Amino acid sequence: MAGIRISGARRTYGSSGGEVHAVDGIDLKIADGEFVVLMGASGSGKTTLLNLIGGLDRLSAGRLEVWGTDLAGLSEARLAGLRMTSIGFVFQELNLLPELTLQENVALPLEGAGVPRAEARRRADEALARVGLAELGPRFPDEVSGGQQQRAAIARAVVGERRLLLADEPTGALDSATGTQVMRTLRELCDSGVTVVVSTHNPANAQYADRVVRMRDGRIDGITAGNSATAGNSATAGNSATAGNSAATGNSAATGRSA
Ligand SMILES: Nc1ncnc2c1ncn2[C@@H]1O[C@H](COP(=O)(O)OP(=O)(O)OP(=O)(O)O)[C@@H](O)[C@H]1O
C-alpha cells in the first residue's frame, strides 16, 4: 500500500521551559481508501496530527510519508502543490466565501491551480453531485442550510483528483441530525475511494469509521474497529470488521497499526 505511514511522530511547540508536546510519539498507518476517526478530548493532539498529515505543519521528530513521499523532504512550494492537487481540508467553522455561489466556491481551488474556468465549474458541479447537492450550485451559502454548506465545503475539499480528505471537527458546529448527514456524506466519499481522516469529540461519529484511533496527551491510547458495518455500508463491512486485526484480507493487512 502507499497510504499514510507515520512513525515516531512528534510535534513540540514552544521553547525550552515551556514546551508542549502536542503530538508525542505516534505510530500509525492509514491505508488508501480507509476511514479513520481520531477521537479524543480537547488538547489531545487531533488537530495537530491532521495538520501534520496534510502538510500544514511539520514534524519536530519522526517520519511521515504520504503516498510514499516523506513530507519532511518537500519544500514549502512542493507541499503547497501536494495540498492543491491531492489533499482537501474541512474545518468546523463553515468557511465558504459568502459572495460566491456554491459552484464558484467549489471551483475555486481548481481555478487557483490554473484549470480554465469552464472546466473548473464543470468539475465543481460533479463534486457537488457527489455530496448530494447537484441542484444547489447556483445558490449562495446563506441560501442553503448549515449542513448543505458543510457538504459544499466537503465538495470543495475533494474537487478534482483529491483523494485524501482531512476533516477537523466537521460536525462540531452542527445539530446532531445535520451532523449525521455530513458524516454519511464523508462515508459515501470514502466508499468511492477517498481516504478520510476525521477528528471529533463525538462518540456517535465512530460508527462511520473503519477504525477509531483514541488520542490522549498527544499519544495513541488505543485503536478499535469502527462500526461502519452497521451504518448501512455493505461495501465497507468487510474492511471495517477486520481492519488492523488480520492479515487475511487485502486492506486490513495494510492497515495494521504499530502503535
Ligand atoms: N501553535 C501552537 N502553539 C502552542 N501550543 C499549541 C499550538 N497548537 C496546539 N498547541 C497545544 O498542543 C496541544 C494539542 O492541541 P490540538 O489542537 O492538536 O488538540 P485537539 O485534540 O485538536 O484539541 P481540540 O479538540 O480542542 O481542537 C494542546 O495542548 C494545545 O494547546
Walkthrough of the structure:
The chain is α/β, with parallel strands linked by helices and 259 residues long. The protein is 34% helix and 24% strand. It has helices at 46-53, 76-86, 102-112, 117-130, 146-158, 176-191, 234-242, 250-254; strands at 4-13, 20-30, 35-40, 61-66, 69-70, 87-90, 164-168, 195-200, 211-216, 219-225. The strands form 2 sheets. Strands 6-7-8-3-9-10 form a 6-stranded mixed β-sheet, with helices on both faces. It has a 4-stranded antiparallel β-sheet with strand order 2-1-4-5, covered by helices on one side. Strand 9 (211-216) and strand 10 (219-225) form a beta hairpin. Helix 3 (102-112) crosses helix 4 (117-130), helix 3 (102-112) runs parallel beside helix 5 (146-158) and helix 5 runs parallel beside helix 6 (176-191). The model is unreliable at 230-259 (pLDDT under 50). Bound molecules: adenosine-5'-triphosphate (ATP). Adenosine-5'-triphosphate (ATP) binds next to strand 2 and helix 1. It comes from Kitasatospora cineracea. Residues 224-259 are annotated as: Disordered. Keywords: ATP-binding, Nucleotide-binding, Transport.
